[in-house]
Amino acid sequence: MPSKSDFKTEIENLIMEALESGEDFIDITSKCVHEKVGGYPSRIHNMPGCCDAMYELKKEKDEILHAPNKGKGATLKIRYYL
What is the value of pTM for the model shown? Predict the structure, then answer.
């Protein structure tokens, strides 16, 4: 099962790729991150860890575009400004 550290690394990689492409921001969903890292969808996944990683990497200027009712889930979407 992927760890929160695995998710943070993937999110940081996505942010760097967008930055190198000259983007002003990148919208990231937890489902996309978890699929790239592996283990989703499956009965054994770590979506809470993925969402925790996303929230922890969120800076003050970044925006939560969508949060599931309980705060964690595959539809969490955060806009990270670069």
Answer: 0.95
